[in-house]
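User: what does the whole thing look like in 3D?
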Amino acid sequence: MLTSSQRQLLRVISESGPLSRTVLAASMGLSKAAMSGIARDLITLGVLHETETVYGQGRPSILLDLHPEGAFFVGISLLEDPAPMVLSDLNGKIIARENMPLSRDPEVIAGLIADALPKLLARRPDAADKLSGLGVALSGFVDEKQANCVQSTLLGWQDVPLAKIIRQKTGIETFIENDAKAVAVSEKLFGSARDIQNFSVVSFGDGVGCAHFIGGKLYRGNHGGAGEIAHCTIEPNGSPCRCGKRGCLDTVASIKAIKEMSKAEGLACTSLTELEEEASVGNAVAIRILHRAGGALGLAIAHLIQFNDPGMILITHVEGNFDGLFGTVVQQAIEANVLPRYAGQTPIRTQRVDSDIWARGAASIAAHNFLIGPNPN
Amino acid sequence: MLTSSQRQLLRVISESGPLSRTVLAASMGLSKAAMSGIARDLITLGVLHETETVYGQGRPSILLDLHPEGAFFVGISLLEDPAPMVLSDLNGKIIARENMPLSRDPEVIAGLIADALPKLLARRPDAADKLSGLGVALSGFVDEKQANCVQSTLLGWQDVPLAKIIRQKTGIETFIENDAKAVAVSEKLFGSARDIQNFSVVSFGDGVGCAHFIGGKLYRGNHGGAGEIAHCTIEPNGSPCRCGKRGCLDTVASIKAIKEMSKAEGLACTSLTELEEEASVGNAVAIRILHRAGGALGLAIAHLIQFNDPGMILITHVEGNFDGLFGTVVQQAIEANVLPRYAGQTPIRTQRVDSDIWARGAASIAAHNFLIGPNPN
DNA sequence: GACAATAAGTTCAGCAAGTGAACAAATCAA
DNA sequence: TTGATTTGTTCACTTGCTGAACTTATTGTC
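Assistant: Here's the predicted 3D structure for the full assembly of 754 residues, as structure tokens:
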């Protein structure tokens, strides 16, 4: 177990990149004397290591950085069948990939994970020794201990202590997390939001997910439901949603919804890319669908900006294509629906991601617990 | 200056009410030994005092509570002319009230405050000695140091270091804050949100304000704009708003908007109460206006719930009347627009407040800085 | 009414994590 | 070569906390 100062140091480095002991001391409000000891301990533990030497006036400074091979983590996504598994190092780099069959029975899942682990670890014998955590991403609500799945429609679960079950079967420290929240943690720890304290990730795919970082910490909400923008009413009296309401964002602005709308309108498109192509050659129906979907997503994001004033919005998309009409409409809708004085003040980044995104996010949940810990330090 | 443990103790008591040393120690994760000293110091400082003795088995416990007369604070609202001023104690109780003329010149305001202070303090000579801070509530954006007004349309300000100016003139530690955020702090410190870590306050009056507490701390947003729900687009292609967009919440769901809509529709109502009366006797126009306004406010609050999953929504209203049709419609619109599984999960409290609310909020900003401090301890 | 049982709060020696000042180390600039 | 400069370490000392033993104030029981 790391001390609170050690964790703080790791957090600062993870936010700012490699830093010298003196700079670290200053930015943590500690003396150089204290810093010296903390750094020494972390280096001994193998978590930190000296990297570049920076020459200036006076004695050169030695930058400290996370030691990539200081710890390894496993991440598993329960969002697809087969379920992707990844092995990542302390820098979030993916070292190995595997797939395992999916099940809806927690005990079976734990068994399948235990079975698949040796193959994942086979290529890197040292990773097995330093395996420091396992993360699982799933669609549903997770408690703040990242141990129990409170509710998952997709998996048909209610109060399943999945982390404990997996931990018993594998012997590895396990944490679970909601899919969108896991992606947000991964962006904070290893991605493009490292140094941003307040931001939201919107994951655009078959569904629309969202998660907030506030004050440098994942904000889970009072019932774990923060960021569930998919079912906000975006088209009053719109189409019925499977949730029971009407006009939810999810009925218009997910890839699934776009495909369904295309089908309903008699288009033969089976992907967003195809629909974009149709629109680019002037297909009025395709253009209308993209406008409707993009306008809805943009409006929701504009609300997010007005409500929470984040420092960045990161839109991740798997199959999507944000360079075409859809992306343009989203951008325009955002700009048109935030307070004019705000417009352009909030950076919107879009990022194409591969299908590893959920497993990566899962691994970063384990990494986050190892580096920064669960507590509000 | 208080230590971090002293501040933590004060925060726990402010959240939970009077507690014994032993309970405090347990809830702060400290030993009874440490607690003993911390409590002794705070009692010596006059901030804490022993109150009730609770008898059970064993030695009775002595509850510790904030000493109301341990410190006093001044709060001023720059939202009305004349500007209300209050003197409050450490429990948030209002001890004295005054008014002072309003100005738009920061230097003049500081002078007017300095002039008005003696009269406010006249009745309580001890308060003058223990005056520990001054807070100012205003409409506009305030930086996170609660020192500079970044932007205020109402006052015509841009980057005004108001806190410093007032402090120089009066010699009192001064903090400024946005009106809605000040009210949220006052509800957290002294009101009905004491023990709630995540909540939002929606202040319904001439305009619609909102502020969030997240993780027990005021969340200001990246540019200080968190909670600015007044200009979220709630009626796409709705009426033009003075902000330049269309269909903002502010154009439908503020008291000002309701009055304007009534006037435009030819009703002679000059207050929400009158409009409610018309509606109760079956005036179709009045009913329509109240439905439109209530539906809009409810939808915005539903979005707030979906986006942030707060533990409570507190609606404060000055002139408003939430027992009538308007309140009912708001409630219904909230329920109808949150994920059905969520419905009823988020407590909505409405609270009628007097016109002191802004000045009280301002005083609580000063109290918050005294008790808990500006730092994320 | 005496006396155990119980729990609150205090005291005190000791420990862990920090500080400040002095110092050693490694470089650049003159 | 020497001085200036800045990094990082060492060391004596302070601070805030802990654990254990103790004192204190009460209830319950015989």
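In plain terms: Chain A touches chain B through 45 residues (CB under 8 Å). Residues 20-22, 32-33, 35-37, 39-40, 56-62 of chain A lie near DNA strand D (CB under 10 Å from a C1').
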